[in-house]
Design a protein that fits this description.
The radius of gyration is 15 Å and the shape is globular. Helix 1 (about 60-70) crosses helix 6 (about 185-200) and helix 3 packs across helix 4. The protein starts with 16 loop residues before the first strand and ends with a helix. The chain has helices at about 60-70, 75-80, 100-115, 130-140, 155, 185-200, and strands at about 15-20, 35-40, 85-90, 95, 125-130, 160-165, 165-170. By secondary structure, the chain is α/β, with parallel strands linked by helices. It has one domain: 3-Layer(aba) Sandwich (Uracil-DNA Glycosylase, subunit E), CATH 3.40.470.10.
Length: about 200
């Protein structure tokens, strides 16, 4: 299955993102083999920097570093996929400013919900940053489900036991892009969250 052949945005309603950077993973995978979904913030500013764009891609490099910090012996995104971990973003276009408007997160959460539905065996969601957390909470609210992640700073709620549609939810920090590595304390917490998800 190729996810990008199943899901697309029809009308591109969001005004604070770069539509020309619209990206949904086009890798060929067996969705039944995926047990962990790692959801980052948004597509990269350059399509050649997305998760599956090759080993030189920025998102690939920083994500591999995050897994290596967690003690996971990986050297390629394919190694991560082989462990049953699928990488995607909450917002499918690149952002135009530091933040992303709530309306954009809510609109794009419809695509993320379709994407989540493709994977029947998910045991854990790694929500990498506030945008990913907001997107999954938005999906739950729209479907009148319990809020997966409570309000509060990630630092305070990390370590709690949260669930979304039967799977564990790990609220964490953004691991994809140039900001990863700036704060060593956040890198340590990301590594802890990855290890906890893999232990499931």
């Amino acid at each position: 299955m190729r996810v990008n052949q199943t899901i697309t945005c029809k009308d591109f309603p969001c005004k604070d993102v770069r539509h020309e950077c619209f990206t949904i993973p086009g890798i060929d995978i067996d969705p039944r083999q995926i047990t962990i979904m790692m959801i980052a913030e948004c597509a990269s500013q350059q399509t050649q920097d997305d998760f599956y764009a090759g080993e030189a891609a920025l998102f690939a490099q920083t994500t591999l570093l995050a897994f290596q910090d967690a003690g996971v012996p990986v050297s390629s995104i394919q190694d991560i996929l082989a462990r049953g971990i699928y990488l995607t973003t909450a917002v499918k276009c690149a952002k135009t400013a530091y933040g992303i408007e709530n309306a954009t997160v809510q609109a794009c959460s419809h695509l993320l919900e379709q994407e989540i539905a493709l994977f029947p065996n998910i045991k854990a969601y790694l929500l990498m940053g506030d945008v990913a957390i907001k997107a999954v909470n938005s999906i739950a609210k729209r479907n009148r489900e319990a809020r997966p992640v409570p309000a509060g700073s990630t630092y305070k709620i990390r370590g709690g036991e949260f669930r979304f549609r039967g799977a564990r939810v790990f609220p964490s920090y953004l691991q994809a892009g140039p900001s990863f590595g700036i704060e060593k304390s956040k890198r340590k917490m990301i590594a802890e969250d990855i290890r906890a998800a893999l232990q499931l």
